[in-house]
Amino acid sequence: MTFQVYNTLTKQKEVFRTLEEGKVRMYNCGPTVYARIHIGNLRAFMFADLLRRWLEHEGYEVCQIMNITDVGHLTDDADDGDDKLDARARREGKDPYEISRHFADLFLDDLKRMECLPAHHYPRATDHIPEMLEMIDKLIADGYAYQTGENVYFEVGKFEHYGRLSGNKVDDLDAGNRIEVNQEKRAPADFALWKSDPSHLMKWESRFGPDGFPGWHIECSAMARKHLGDRIDIHTGGEDNVFPHHECEIAQSEAFTGEGFATYWMHTKFLQVDGGKMGKSLGNAYTLDDIEAKHHDLRTLRYTLLRGHYRSPLNFTWDVMADSAKALEKLDDLVGRLRRIAAGEEGAQDAGAGQAELDTCRSEFVDAMNDDLNTPRALASLHSLRDHAVQGRIGSACGASALEFLGKVHGALGFLRLEEDSLDASIEALIQERLDARNNKNWARSDEIRDELLAQGILLEDTGGKTVWRRG
Question: Which of 223, 379, 442, 443 has the highest local Cβ count within 10 Å?
Answer without folding.
Answer: 223
